[in-house]
Design a protein that fits this description.
By secondary structure, the chain is of the alpha+beta class. The protein is built from two helices and seven strands. The chain has a single domain, classed as 2-Layer Sandwich (Alpha-D-Glucose-1,6-Bisphosphate, Chain A, domain 4).
């Protein structure tokens, strides 16, 4: 399954939305990579297994279930989360791209590619719309958490 959508971060014409700089937005995305517990409900621990200049390998502990993923990025441009398919996880990637079509008018593009529904007759295909909706809600929550963290609120 492939799915993507945009979330508007800044609308310079709307004074009710606090403007965020590209650097602030990027700091929030890096925080998501470093400690996903603030962003993923049910996540008990996010353990960094390996660190490089532009990548992390992590273990995400959800109770008895654990998932390993790799996070790669190009500074202030994009971040990719990749999980291999296992018996316990469908596998796939999420790429978050920072877009700025006009000065201070920031967007995040969330692009998902998963193995859901790839097999003919696969029962996962029936869940595609539900999964897309859950992804969209999770991404809206990601932006809310980033705004909250930047405002100095460490409670979520």
């Amino acid at each position: 399954m492939k799915f993507e959508h945009l979330i508007e971060i800044n609308d310079p014409r709307n004074p009710l939305i606090p403007l965020m700089t590209r650097a602030e937005l990027w700091r929030g995305l890096m925080f998501r990579a470093e400690d996903a517990t603030h962003f993923l409900p049910g996540l008990d621990a996010c353990i960094i297994l390996e660190r490089g200049d532009d990548r992390l390998r992590r273990r995400l502990d959800f109770g008895q279930a654990a998932i390993e993923d790799t996070v790669t990025w190009r500074h202030e441009e994009w971040m990719r989360f990749a999980v291999a398919r296992t018996d316990a996880h469908a596998g796939g990637t999420l790429t978050i791209t920072v877009e700025e079509p006009a000065e201070k008018h920031l967007f995040l593009r969330f692009a998902y590619e998963t193995t859901l529904g790839e097999t003919p007759g696969d029962e996962d295909a029936a869940y595609a719309e539900y999964v897309k909706s859950a992804y969209r809600e999770s991404d809206i929550e990601t932006v809310r958490v980033i705004r909250s963290l930047l405002a100095g609120n460490t409670r979520h």
